[in-house]
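Can you make up a polypeptide sequence alongside its tokenized fold?
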Amino acid sequence: MKKASLLLKIALGFIFTLFVSFNIVVDSAMATGQFSKTCEDITLDGSTLSAFCQKADGYTLNETSINLDEEIGNLDGTLSWGDHNFSLTCDSIGLAQSLFTRTYVLAAECERRDGYTYIPTEIELDEHIANIDGTLTYE
């Protein structure tokens, strides 16, 4: 009887651990970017990304925007998350959408440290831009 009780406790502990781990993975997946799945009429004006995004109710749209200069920088000619003011050293800034994944990419030609060489670069916006109840947010 003790052996059965011990096995039951081990099995329940394993199931509980598995359940908690699954919830952490799912919560993390839901918390990262993916604004393009719930937003429409997505545009870029300079460094400002604008869209109409669904609110939490699933059908009300909210007009919203975010200044990407606050979250993206130019690191020696490469667009980089967690830095600032990419638009000061980048030209030909534009927005593109992948035909296959429907994700949005910020593309530009950015200045290298030498001050005169520009190279093409891009960064996937769905990596860190999210729609939180109808508002574009950096995550």
